[in-house]
Task: structure prediction
Amino acid sequence: MRHSKLNIPTQIPNILLVAGNGRNVGKTYFVCKLIEHLVQTTPVTGVKVSSHFHPYNETDVLIKNKHFVILEEKQLTNKDSSLMLQAGAGKVYFVMAEQEHLEEAFGQLYPLLPQHPVVCESGGLHQIINPGLFFFVTPPLQKIIKPRHLDYKPIMVYNTGHSLNFKIEEISFVNNQFRISNQTIQPTPAD
Result:
């Protein structure tokens, strides 16, 4: 896909995108560690995209139609979007949209996003944009459930449940884009 009928640039170098190999593989853990690291030097905005609709507080709604809802996370809970806020993100947006309406939803969200770093957890946004960095989180040796993600050449992050094979400190944000200071990815540590 990667071309938009909406007014969305396909290359968005200030977005760091994280997808994963299903549920409970450590995507939000990785995203929160990234936010904690980046906020030491720059403001960070978080975005959580879900294809599932969850209960929400009407006062948090920014944009809503019959196909999607965009919220600004303000609650302190155990929800993924709230954990991003608690990790230090200045603002966090929570987008609920089925994949066929994600482009439309992102087209509405995009004008709200800043030029500083945006850390986004989404299983489908990589089909619409080229982010500055794209990570894919999975437990080591787990069969890839949705191999189409790998077509977009993500950086593989293996989460053992105790550690990651990627040094988050190597990520920086310079001249409105993400950089990795050492492209060598560390081998997966043994449990």
